[in-house]
Amino acid sequence: MIILGVILLIIGFVTGISILWTIGLILVVVGLILWLLGAVGHAVGGRNHYW
Length: 51
Description:
The chain is mostly helical. It is built from two helices and no strands. The termini are close together.
């Protein structure tokens, strides 16, 4: 999720398409939140690690 977000951020920045930039930013933030929750031991969606 984080990698997809970064790819969308790059594509949105290069092409100037703001919706890709927005979606990429949202995916990066959500991915980081899920990663942090999994790293500290909280179960996310019934799993200890979201991947």
